Each structure stands twice: as C-alpha cells, then as structure tokens.
Amino acid sequence: MAVCIAIIGKDNAPLYISIANIDKELDMQYRVHAALDVVEEKCQFINKAAPESKELYLGLLYSTEFHKIYGFITNSKIKFILVMDSENVALRENEVRAVS
What we know:
Layout: E1 2-8, E2 14-19, H1 25-49, E3 57-63, E4 67-73, E5 79-85, H2 93-99
Antiparallel strand pairs: 1-2, 1-5, 3-4, 4-5
C-alpha cells in the first residue's frame, strides 16, 4: 500500500504531496526530501554512464524498517517519489514499475 506519493519539480520544490495518514505528514515529508538526495546521486551516475539513457524508473531509492521508497524521473526532470508500506506487503520490482 502506498502511504505517500510526491511530485517534485525540477528545482526540487514539492509540487504535490499526498499522504494516507495525515498524522504522519512531517515524517513522510522528511522521507521524501531524504529520497531526493538519492535521486540526485542516481541521476548523476546515469548521466555519466550513458547521457542518452532513456531509463526513467530509478527503482528502490532506499528502505527503512517500515517503508520502501521508489523513484521515477521524467525527461523534464519532474520527480515522482512513492513511499510504500513494507511491513505487511511484499512487493516485487515489476509491480512497483507498473505503478509508475
């Protein structure tokens, strides 16, 4: 189950954040902003390895005890961050890719 979905602009400003449990809003915002650091690292690596790469799905950015955070970036540098609950749900990579 997705507990948070965030759309981040090309200047890393949040455009939209939807959180399932409003009581955890600050915690989810922290996780989304922490994921942006990983997104930037992955984008630098992709650009150095193959600048013409068209792979927009960044995969698992990082995981915690309770959440798994996935990323997706568009050609216009808009970032989508998906925070999934990992306590009760075992997701496969292709299932998350289908969501994005």
